[in-house]
Amino acid sequence: MKALQFVEVGKPLQLADLPRPIAEPGGLVFKVKACGICTSDLHAVEVPGLLQPGNVLGHEYTGVVVEVGPGVAGWQVGDRLVALPAKPCGVCPACVEGRHSECAQIVPQGFDLRMPGAYAEYAGCMAGLAMKIPDELSDIDAATIEPLAVGLGAWRTGQAVLGADVLVIGAGIIGLAVAKWARFFGAGAVGISEMQPTRLARARRIDADVVIDAAQCADPVAEFERQTGRKPSVIFECVGRPMLAKLIEIAPAGAHLVMVGTGMQPEHFTVVSAALKKLRMSFPLAYEAADFPFVQRMLAAGRIKVDGLVTATVNLDEASAMFTLLGQPNEHCKVLIAP
């Protein structure tokens, strides 16, 4: 089968011919229908030693089951799926109690050779972490469940009270997802700061209350206050590049900084600068297992809409070039690989 492999930092992903995976006990093998190129993937290939040569990325996927592993019930060939992209150990106390995200031995799919991702024609997943896709949901829309779940987990981490004013830094798919959930759960004014013009236009299309052109405004908190008369109580960083020191500088006293972007580069700041403002900081990672079915139900019911968030679809032959493009400033929101 065709698959894209990581070679080394600074080199493009390489198209390779690999054996199709075999369904292991408790697992499923599926034909990939769509897989999102995630910003975490783009950051991971820049960090020396994080990925191993031969690593196959890809954790935002939909597929059709082609093989059911031993001991799996309730699944059959032809079923459509999405899945939480991980392999927990299954035997630790957290796993036994169903808290798989707390497993100390969990293998994150796409970032470990032991569980290749879905930048490929076929991939595998754990049946216990998979979910069937309803007929009314397309493969393209279903491929946004994972990033929408990331946004939902970030919103929950922010612990914003009903009617709270919030500011989102970055209008990629995670930033827009956070803004959508903020509106869904009853936030007050929802602001989005972004410097790329096409992404600014998307922020306006989702009816953000305040849209700030970061290329023209060095202090989005001050601009938010100028437009609303209030300061945001929660700030969601959804870029994934070093900016914590800047956020501490501009944040209002008592604000909650939620670092959603999962940056993989060093940050440099002084603790006292945050302490003097009595800031809170949270560093969410991903989501809870229950978030996937909730997001799917809201998508299927039309209560959360993803129109316009998928901005391109490429095949595996085109994906390496697109991956390189997305590593630079660009106007895309979510690009899918559709093998």
Verbal overview:
This protein is α/β, with parallel strands linked by helices. It is 27% helix and 22% strand. It has 2 domains: 2-144 and 309-337, Quinone Oxidoreductase, Chain A, domain 1 (Alpha-Beta Complex), CATH 3.90.180; 150-282, 3-Layer(aba) Sandwich (Rossmann fold), CATH 3.40.50.720. Strands 3, 4, 5, 8, 9, 16 and 17 form a 7-stranded mixed beta sheet that branches. A 6-stranded parallel beta sheet has the order 12-11-10-13-14-15, with helices on both faces. It has a two-stranded antiparallel sheet with strand order 1-2. α5 links the parallel β10 (166-169) and β11. α4 crosses α5 (173-184). The radius of gyration is 20 Å and the shape is globular. The model has no long low-confidence stretch (mean pLDDT 94).
